[in-house]
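tool=predict chain=A
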Amino acid sequence: GIGTTAPSSLLEVSKSSDSSDIRASSWSTTNAHSGTIIFVKSASATQGTYSATADGERLGTIQAYGSESGNGISAASGAIYFEQDGAAASGRVPSRITFYTGSGTANQAEKMRITSAGNVGIGTDAPAFLLHVAGILGIKATQPTLTLDRGGAYAWTIRNGDGTGSFPLSTLNVANNSGSPVMTFQDDGDV
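tool=predict ok
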């Protein structure tokens, strides 16, 4: 224990009336050098013996706890889990990152994940697209805009009109590559 005479785990850093920071510093002119925290997991129960981990195994965790209001014990409130996402290969372990949060009425649960394929899922644990949202997606701004761009000269924009330029107030507009509306939906249902 550092700052405590009664550590609750193999290493506990504790400080009263202040933050208890842990810092990993690197002083180097080489870009690849950095402060690093490394999590290691083996499927063997023998220390120092490496055995291939399996799909779904938790490889590392960053966990946050708070203190409950009723009985003063600590409770998990949010976490980032690093998990295996497929079979291990020679020199490679596919991985995913899952993000958990809790609320005042429910235990923490998965809210988002990034798969080994690079797909991001919000509200789903099986994202099939680069961004897969299961539920209602909201874009809130003065003039919310969604642009569909294939990386070249062709882009389409869906925009909620704010009354400026060619976009009348309270309309949904589909604009072409040059930004001109080609279809306008009015709030009374007219197209």
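The chain has a mean pLDDT of 87. Strands lie at 58-67, 74-84, 95-101, 109-114, 120-122, 131-133, 145-149, 155-160, 171-175, 181-186.
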